Amino acid sequence: MAAVYSAYEFGYLVNDAITVRRETHPTVRLGRSDQDAVARRLPAIFILRTGFGICCLAALGLMAKGWGLAWKQPVAAGAAIILLIHLTYLAYNRLRGRITIPLFLLLVSLRFAGPVLMLASATGRPSLSLLGVLLATYPVINALEFSGKARFSLPWVQAIPPKVDAWRLAAYGLLVLVAWLACRGSHPAANAFRLGSTYFLGYRILTYLVARAMPTRTAPRGTP
Fold it and tell me: Which of the 8 DSSP states describes residue 185?
C-alpha cells in the first residue's frame, strides 16, 4: 500500500506544482513560492520515492515468501501498478479537457484497488468480481464527483459539487441497498461489497455530522 500511495502522491505533487500553471480554472493548493520549491526538488523527490517503493516491494516479497505464499506475483503486480500510475499521471498532467475524467478514474482505481489486488495475487488469481466491487465502492463515485467540475461542462453532473455531501450520502445509501438486497450469498466479493459500502456510508455520515457540528468561519472584514 505504501509503495502505491508513494507513487500516487508524486503525481499529485507534479499536478500541484506544475500542471496548475497551465489550467484556466486551477485548484490551487500551493502558493507560488511553494510551487517553485517543489518544482526544483521534483527529480530528488522522484528518486527518493522510487527507492522507497522498491524497498516496499522487496519487503512485501520477503513477507510473502516467509509466510509460504507466492512472492513473485505480488511484487510483479505492485511494480506494474506503480508503473501504470506514473504513465497515467504523465498523460493526466499534460492533457486537459474531458479526457482527464477516465484518466482520473484510472488513477483513483489504481490507488484504491491496487494494494488489494497485490495482496490477492499472493494467494491466487484476483477475481473479476472482486475488481468490480472495488471499483463500485469508491472510484466510480469519486470520478462522478470529479466530472461535475464546471470546466468539463457536463450539465447532468454539475449539480454534484454544490451539494457534494448530499450526493455522497445518497450514493452510498443506494450502494448499501444494492449490496444488501441484491447481492445475496456468502461469496467473498459479495461480502466485501456489503462491508465496503456500509463502511463508506458510515464514514460519510460521520464526516457530515462533524462538519455540521463545527462552527462556521466568518471571513474577516476587507476580504472578498
Answer: S
